[in-house]
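Input sequence (163 aa), recorded before submission:
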Amino acid sequence: MKNRTSEKDTLMQLHDSIRLVSEGNAEEAETILRSVLKSHPENADVLWLLGRALAQQGQLKESIDAYSKATQVEPDRAVFHESLGVMLIQIGDVLGGKKALAKALELDSEALRPSEYTFGKLIEESPENKIYWYGLGIVLELQGKMDMSKKAMLKAHKVDSTQ
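Predicted structure, C-alpha cell format:
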C-alpha cells in the first residue's frame, strides 16, 4: 500500500510542478522536483521538468545537466533531446545543440516544432542575438526548410557583423 501512496504522491507532486512551471513559479517547482528526485533519482520526467524550471530561472548550465540526465535515462524520448538541443544552442554550443536536435528529429518527425517556436519567441525578445538566429536556422535546416534556414543564417551573420 505504501508504494501505491508513494506513486500517487509523486504524480501529484509532478502535476503541481507542471502547473507551477507554467505559471512562472519555477523556484517553487524546483524545490518540489529536487525533493522527488531524492526518492526517484532516475525519473526522466522529473529530470526533464527540473530542466524546464532551471531554464526558466536562467540557470542554463544546470538545465542542460538535467536534460542530459533525462536523455541518458530515457534515450528514446525526442522531447528530452529537443530541450537539450535548444539549451545547448542558447549557451553557444551550436554543434552540440544541432546534434541533440537531429537526434530528436530522428526519434520523432514533429519534434522540432517547439524549437522553431522557442527560437522565434527568443528572437522577438532579442532580435539582435545572433545565437538565436543561428538556432532558428539550424532547426529550419534540420526540418528541410532550406530557404527559411538560409534567411535565418544570413540574418545571424548580418547581426554578427554589426556587433
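Checked by second reader. Residues 1-5 have pLDDT under 50 and may be disordered.
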